[in-house]
């Protein structure tokens, strides 16, 4: 995802913005369902015919009623065909099956003090989303791969399929000897049936979890064993992955250990597996067994541009956030996703360093702003949806992560992480709602944070600030005016929130915290001399857009002295001075030698936008940059110069550079400068296999450019 700089102010009027956006308030209100019983345990037995893409199965259900007159049980069942229902003694029970339920008539009436068990036998012969039979291809073996999220366990297991009920589970799977079977929990044993040429894997999930976290993966996997002390950590991959998988997944135990210490809660499960699937894109959490797309295993070259490390950390974090404590209904999706998204930022801060982490959080913030400005705004806690997946968007992931960042700022690090640990311990193995977290915050901190949550979780939108300052030399007073203008949007509040203001002088920096409460806030500060820079939101704690007009001198100072988000903002703001020799020189210096790659990339992009014809030498130097994204930006800039004499250079870069992104930009540059004589070269490039079809897509774009130029 490429960083975009024009994010800080909406240059649209209210009516123009909303004319292009979804009216998500037309979606129906969807509430947590009632239930008659508490499911305790599912013992699932499956006999799977891989070639025939079908299974016969049974689920032995143990439950306890939640009322005193239970004589009928309804379970979710879609696509599968129930053939029999037996009580605990093997006697048949009558049942009816509709389109999405199986209704079982019990042999007598049960009370809330009872526990009962029955077995449902069934068949599945249709291809379903919840359990995919995937054919063998050049790149993947034949496999079965489950995808229970958010409510597709019911497609291959008759069950109560909603996250507010948690069960322990056994998965007993019989399959041909050629295949290995992975599921949740601990592998109890493997039983051989030599006569049939089959074996049976018995997995046991001994701690309760929700049905969307049930996992089943079957293939001729290579299993790479790893560990964190006594905790098994294994990687289930294709044979062709074996060389690269250990390196790609090497940090997994390290991540588990980091989150254990960060949360103050030891990893709660018996093992952790990562398993590759041909149908998965990024990652999908399941208790003790995360499903990953094939791209998670990268070659050394692929890892240059397509690191999965953030996704791996996100999915590891789900073992606590989503698996240990689980949203009780889909309106609370942030409890799973916001915490996991914020956790991968915290991991990056720990492992990648502050600059990379700050840039990562900025990208997360911008992802939310794109959705808010271009599609819709909704409260983070939101019960209007037609299907649960609609609540898993950039509000649930990056916006919620940034709200947690603000909460940490308000509470302070010590209190924030004590809240996190207390919440996990207090609600372990339970389904929770937002109010549970709010109560925990108050109990641990002693603070009534209801207004904070009301503003940021239960209302849509975000703050939009107009910041201005004035220095009065006669009184040595700096006046800072901060206007909140987001009230042009419906239901978006004027926020009450603290913010840090940084004042930079030659001898150092002074930070003052002020509290914003009104639409317009004015604050006065006394200094001996005018600050060289006044930094709004020092530390980048607020989720916001803003305008703040500064002089060229102050922006040049900020580029040199601020953190990465502040420097990138100042670099972009210098566009207002794009004809100034000072700004041109600053962009040039940054492109040539700044310490952080995203700053170099931004400078190259701005030189290309405003001074491309005079910056060729800078671009040529940047082609040798250590970071592939900077090299790609430089090649794109060179391609836009329309200099056919460079085509041989672009070909050489395509053939020699290790980065797929760089090679792709080189192909596009050939198309932008070439002619029909280069089509053969480009057609050959389109055949080269690359992650996400990067080279194929670039070659096809290049071919299109040449054909368009000849029309």
From TrEMBL:
This protein's source sits in the domain of life called Bacteria
* Co-factor(s): Zn(2+)
The answer, when asked if Nucleotide-binding is one of the entry's keywords, is no
Where is each Peptidase M1 membrane alanine aminopeptidase domain found?
A: 250-456
Signal peptide span? none
What keywords does the record list, in alphabetical order? Aminopeptidase, Hydrolase, Metal-binding, Metalloprotease, Protease, Zinc
Q: Name one Pfam family in it.
A: Peptidase_M1
EC number(s) stated in the UniProt entry for this protein: 3.4.11.2
Q: What is this protein called?
A: Aminopeptidase N
Domain Aminopeptidase N-like N-terminal stretches: 40-213
Native source species = Cyclobacterium jeungdonense
Does the entry feature the keyword Hydrolase, yes or no? yes
An MF annotation (GO) of this entry = aminopeptidase activity
Catalytic activity reads: Release of an N-terminal amino acid, Xaa-|-Yaa- from a peptide, amide or arylamide. Xaa is preferably Ala, but may be most amino acids including Pro (slow action). When a terminal hydrophobic residue is followed by a prolyl residue, the two may be released as an intact Xaa-Pro dipeptide
Q: Which family does it belong to?
A: Belongs to the peptidase M1 family.
Cite the PANTHER family for this sequence. Answer: PROTEASE M1 ZINC METALLOPROTEASE, PUROMYCIN-SENSITIVE AMINOPEPTIDASE-RELATED
Q: What class of enzyme is it?
A: hydrolase
């Amino acid at each position: 995802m490429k960083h975009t700089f024009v994010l800080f102010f909406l240059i649209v009027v209210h009516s123009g913005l909303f004319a292009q956006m979804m009216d998500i308030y037309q979606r129906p209100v969807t509430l947590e369902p009632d239930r008659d019983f508490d499911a305790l345990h599912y013992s699932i037995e499956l006999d799977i015919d891989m070639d025939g893409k079908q299974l016969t199965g049974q689920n032995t259900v143990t439950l306890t009623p939640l009322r005193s007159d239970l004589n009928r049980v309804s379970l979710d069942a879609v696509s599968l065909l129930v053939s029999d229902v037996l009580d605990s003694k093997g006697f048949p029970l009558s049942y009816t099956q509709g389109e999405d339920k199986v209704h079982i008539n019990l042999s007598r009436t049960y009370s809330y003090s009872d526990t009962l068990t029955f077995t449902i036998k069934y068949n599945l012969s249709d291809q379903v989303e919840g359990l995919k039979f995937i054919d063998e291809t050049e790149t993947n073996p034949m496999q079965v791969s489950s995808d229970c999220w958010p409510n597709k366990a019911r497609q291959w297991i008759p069950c109560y399929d909603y996250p507010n009920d948690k069960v322990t589970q056994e998965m007993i799977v019989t399959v041909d000897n050629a295949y290995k079977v992975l599921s949740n929990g601990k592998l109890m044993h493997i039983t051989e049936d030599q006569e049939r040429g089959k074996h049976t894997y018995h997995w046991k999930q001994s701690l309760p979890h929700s049905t969307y976290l049930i996992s089943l993966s079957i293939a001729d996997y290579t299993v790479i064993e790893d560990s964190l002390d006594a905790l098994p950590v294994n990687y289930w991959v294709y044979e062709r992955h074996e060389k690269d998988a250990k390196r790609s997944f090497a940090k997994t135990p390290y991540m588990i250990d980091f989150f254990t210490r960060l949360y103050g809660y030891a990893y709660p499960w018996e093992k952790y597996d990562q398993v590759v699937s041909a149908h998965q894109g990024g990652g999908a959490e399941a208790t003790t067994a995360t499903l990953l797309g094939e791209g998670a295993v990268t070659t050394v070259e692929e890892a240059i541009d397509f690191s999965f490390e953030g996704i791996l950390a996100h999915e590891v974090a789900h073992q606590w956030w989503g698996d240990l404590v689980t949203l009780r209904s889909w309106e609370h999706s942030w409890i799973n996703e916001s915490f996991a998204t914020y956790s991968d930022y915290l991991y990056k801060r720990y492992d990648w360093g502050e600059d990379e982490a700050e840039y990562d959080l900025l990208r997360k913030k911008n992802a939310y702003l794109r959705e808010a400005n271009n599609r819709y705004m909704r409260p983070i806690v939101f019960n209007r949806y037609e299907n649960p997946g609609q609540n898993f968007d950039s509000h649930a992931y990056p916006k919620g992560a940034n709200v947690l960042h603000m909460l940490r700022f308000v509470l302070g690090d010590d209190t924030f992480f004590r809240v996190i640990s207390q919440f996990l311990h207090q609600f372990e193995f339970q389904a929770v709602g937002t109010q549970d977290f709010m109560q925990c915050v108050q109990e641990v901190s002693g603070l009534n944070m209801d207004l904070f949550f009301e503003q940021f979780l239960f209302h849509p939108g975000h703050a939009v600030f107009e910041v201005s300052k004035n220095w009065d030399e006669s009184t040595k007073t700096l006046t800072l005016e901060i206007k909140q203008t987001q009230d042009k949007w419906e239901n978006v509040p004027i926020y009450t929130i603290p913010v840090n203001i940084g004042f930079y002088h030659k001898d150092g920096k002074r930070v003052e915290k002020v509290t914003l409460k009104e639409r317009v806030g004015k604050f006065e500060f006394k200094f001996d001399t005018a600050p060289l820079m006044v930094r709004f939101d020092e530390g980048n704690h607020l989720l916001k857009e803003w305008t703040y007009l500064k002089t060229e001198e102050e922006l040049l100072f900020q580029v040199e002295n601020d953190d990465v988000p502040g420097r990138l903002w100042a670099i972009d703001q210098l566009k207002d001075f794009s004809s100034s020799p000072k700004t041109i020189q600053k962009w040039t210096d940054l492109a040539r030698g700044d310490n952080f790659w995203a700053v170099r990339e931004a400078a190259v992009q701005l030189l290309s936008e405003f001074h491309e014809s005079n910056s060729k030498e800078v671009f040529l130097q940047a082609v040798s940059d250590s970071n592939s994204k900077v090299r790609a930006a430089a090649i794109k800039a060179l391609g836009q110069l329309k200099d056919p004499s460079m085509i041989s250079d672009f070909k050489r870069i395509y053939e020699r550079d290790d980065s797929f992104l760089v090679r792709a930009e080189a192909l596009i540059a050939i198309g932008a400068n070439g002619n029909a004589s280069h089509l053969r070269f480009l057609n050959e490039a389109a055949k080269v296999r690359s992650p996400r079809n990067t080279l194929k897509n670039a070659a096809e774009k290049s071919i299109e450019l040449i054909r368009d130029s000849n029309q």
